[in-house]
Specification:
The chain is mostly beta strands. Helix content is 7%, strand content 52%. The protein has a 22-stranded antiparallel barrel. A five-stranded mixed β-sheet has the order 3-9-10-7-8. It has a three-stranded antiparallel β-sheet with strand order 4-5-6.
């Protein structure tokens, strides 16, 4: 991949920063709560009571949260473990960062991490991209339970906005395959949204809570949140809710590639009105065991894909409007956990059962102008509405067992999606004579069932001092079958099954207490979803016909990471190279035939207007490779100053067709953050810089943006203050100014169908707690 000017500038910033970090290594202050090895200290006080040792111990307890990069993850191995000791690359966004930055949803925070990108625009519709994989090729979890469902398209997974960010405790991002522990879809990585759970002393009763408000200037957004939690003896409870009203946001004037906007413009369908309620009840059976019940409700209306009127930047082009008029989610979760079992096969058991209902409506309005001079209103109008109701029932039973130096994690998981679908499609020529609409209510995807069953085992074992090996294996069986569907009575019922076996091996080799060499080798997979297997109807723009394919196999990937992690005193460095090859990738491909030439039963009774359309099908054809490097550096200085920088370079290739560029993310990205925290925790200040490089390995035929996806540079500043810190009702006020220089830019995934980011905006937050 060729270099570019903006990336050269970012490289000029990053390399000196690493040099400065190296210089100060011998002269930096030791963080409170750490030893010279970089590990949390343990008190050396004797049983007789060494006063100095006890003072150190108290200081460690008081200031432990200041320890640089001492973060614990549960997502990567399903057991609590220091991220430094894990071979897999893991990033964590904690509750403090989420409260301070007040993002619309967790996806907006992920751009600060190495290897991660964002797809989609607006308060409701952004989704994560990990190492060039997006949609159904990454797995979205909430408290370890999958949010992905089988009715979403490959490029567009479920929206993280279903989980309100105000109720999130932390977000854990595992980059690279994680199919052994989590099953299908975890090819590119996993995003686990871990929600808040109140802590309390079972022997007493208490009540706490907080309320907050968020305002955003670009979309005139108002959002209120409230939470009340506590306990009555052994019974704990938490009730929380939020309500948000956001208008369509405004993008700034400026130039992006060959697109020039003379004035600020509205990005239509980027607003939303949404909100939710969450109820959690948990009961401590004993000190080691607990049972809990959680109910979640989320409703959104008036969201959309987002677009700018074509006349503003590309007159005469097709107008595509994709709206999500409403979505409603109900979810019920039951959990039982015993952390100290007296059982030969398990020390710890975790049982989760859940049921969810996810209803939504999708509406598309496409206008294709015929290009007749002086008659721009003449063209083809294609409108469609889809209703989908997905009911999911699932459970996960997981055990942990320590046997000598081994820690085994094993279990079984099962879920089943039952879907109901209706479609209405209207096509007509408008602007030339009286309209003659053609209306078709045949469902494009039949009602169906999607069942997934898996068993897994993992062994975490120390080999020798500072060195550990993690091995894992999973078997997965996925079955999808159609059900009787109104409007498809003449179509035969079909059944489709695929089976997959995947494994992983991860090694962390400790050269010293401060330095780990890490290696990870893993196989991931993604079973084809219901749309890929069973969609049978015209393509959205009406120029072709997409036929079903019940013989699809699962996509598989083979990934390896190799690199190092270094942690000493107040310094953390991490560098990784990754290579991920996807085989049997599913892609829509022309068959070379027309509908009338197809001789299978499902093509025999189609309407006359479909007979001369070319037929396309999803087939297992792609062989894709994603490779790149990720570098991360953190430095904590005296007096509350901290610095962070990371750099990512990604290169993609279609190995089956190497002459054709293939890419689904940026070429290079550089992040920098500088922060000051008042030692008394009264206020904080922050600065963020992000530089994305030009992406040249793309095919943009007649695109108004030009021949490349341009890079960009954006700055943000933020700060917060706590008033009445020691009172019963402390007041926290925050301000964030995003896109400080008011730059016109678009994330890679939003650029070819041009949807720019918001103009410079001010976000104000307020909260109090009791």
């Amino acid at each position: 991949m060729k270099d570019n000017t903006k990336w050269k500038k970012s490289r000029g910033i990053f390399l000196p920063l690493l040099f400065i970090i190296t210089l100060v290594m011998g002269n930096t202050v030791l963080l409170p709560g750490t030893s010279e090895s970089g590990k949390p200290e343990t008190s050396t006080a004797s049983a007789s009571g060494n006063k100095a040792g006890e003072k150190d111990k108290k200081k460690e307890a008081d200031e432990k949260e200041s320890v640089l990069h001492y973060e614990v993850t549960v997502t990567a191995t399903r057991t609590k473990k220091d991220t430094f000791e894990i071979p897999k690359p893991v990033s964590i966004i904690n509750r403090q960062k989420l409260e301070e930055k007040a993002p619309n949803n967790i996806t907006e925070m992920l751009t600060e991490l190495p290897g991660v990108d964002v797809n989609g625009v607006g308060a409701n519709q952004s989704r994560p991209v990990i190492r060039g994989f997006r949609g159904q090729r990454i797995l979205l979890l909430e408290d370890g339970i999958r949010m992905n469902n089988s009715r979403r398209q490959q490029d567009f997974g479920e929206i993280p906005a279903i989980v309100d960010v105000s109720g999130v405790d932390r977000v854990e991002v595992v980059r690279g395959p994680a199919s052994v522990l989590y099953g299908s879809d975890a090819i590119g990585g996993v995003v686990n949204i871990i929600t808040q759970i109140p802590s309390y002393q079972p022997g007493s009763s208490s009540i706490h809570g907080n309320v907050g408000y968020r305002f955003g200037s670009a979309d005139k957004q108002s959002k209120g949140i409230a939470n009340i939690n506590g306990n009555i003896g052994k019974l704990g409870f938490m009730l929380s809710g939020s309500y948000r009203n956001a208008n369509d946001y405004t993008a700034p004037s400026g130039t992006f590639g060959n697109i020039k906007l003379d004035d600020d413009v509205t990005v239509t369908d980027t607003g939303v009105t949404d909100g939710g309620i969450n109820l959690l009840l948990n009961y401590n059976i004993s000190k080691q065991s607990q049972v809990s019940f959680k109910y979640q409700y989320y409703h959104a209306k008036d969201a959309g894909f987002g677009f700018i009127e074509p006349e503003l930047y590309n007159p005469g082009s097709t107008r595509i409007q994709i709206r999500y008029p409403w979505q409603t989610v109900h979810k019920y979760t039951f959990k039982y956990e015993n952390r100290q079992m007296d059982f030969a096969l398990a020390d710890h058991v975790n049982l989760i059962g859940y049921h969810s209902s996810n209803e939504r409506e999708l509406a598309m309005d496409i206008f294709v102008p015929f290009g007749i001079p002086n008659m721009p209103q003449v063209g083809a109008s294609i409108q469609s509405e889809n209703y989908t109701d997905i009911n999911t029932l699932g459970f996960r039973l997981e055990f942990n067992k320590a046997v000598k130096s081994h820690v085994f994690t094993y279990g079984v998981d099962l879920f089943q999606d039952n879907t109901t679908n209706t479609d209405t499609n209207i096509s007509q020529v408008v602007g030339f004579g009286p309209p003659r609409p053609s209306i078709n209510t045949t469902p494009l995807v039949p009602n169906a069932r999607y069942r997934s069953f898996g068993v897994f085992i993992q062994d975490d074992m120390p080999l020798f001092k500072r060195t550990s090996l993690i091995l894992g294996l999973r078997y997965q069986n996925v079955n999808a079958s159609t059900k009787e569907t109104l409007g498809l009575e003449d179509q035969p019922l079909v059944n489709s099954t695929d089976q997959t076996l995947v494994g992983t091996a991860n090694l962390a080799y400790g050269i010293t207490d401060q330095l780990r060499l890490v290696f990870s080798l893993g196989r991931g997979f993604r079973s084809p979803n219901l749309i890929e297997r069973f969609y049978h109807g015209p393509t959205p723009e009406g120029s072709g016909f997409q036929g079903n394919n019940t013989g699809l196999k699962a996509e598989t990937s083979l990934n390896f990471d190799i690199g190092f992690k270094y942690r000493w005193k107040n310094i953390y460095l991490e560098s990784l190279y990754f290579n991920n090859v996807v085989r049997d990738g599913i892609r829509v491909t022309p068959t070379g035939k027309l509908v009338k030439d197809m001789d299978t039963p499902e093509y025999q009774n189609l309407p006359p207007e479909y007979q001369n359309l070319p037929v396309y099908q999803n087939i297992n054809v792609d062989k894709l490779r994603m490779q790149g490097i990720e570098v991360l550096g953190k430095l904590y200085l005296k007096f509350g100053i901290s610095l962070m920088a990371n750099f990512t370079h990604i290169k993609s290739k279609d190995l089956g067709n190497p002459e054709t560029p293939y890419v689904d993310t940026y070429s290079a990205k550089f992040n920098f953050n500088a922060r000051y925290d008042d030692p008394q925790k009264r206020f904080w200040l922050g600065y963020d810089l992000r530089i994305n490089g030009n992406q040249k390995d793309v095919i943009l035929v007649n695109n108004p943006i030009g021949d490349i996806i341009p890079g960009f540079t954006v700055h943000s500043i933020s700060g917060g203050i706590t008033l009445f810190k020691n009172s019963a009702f402390p007041q926290r006020i925050g301000i964030i100014i995003y896109n400080l220089t008011n730059t016109l830019y678009s994330e890679f995934s939003n650029a070819s169908f041009f949807r720019p980011a918001p103009k410079r905006q001010i976000v104000l937050t307020w909260s109090t707690s009791f």
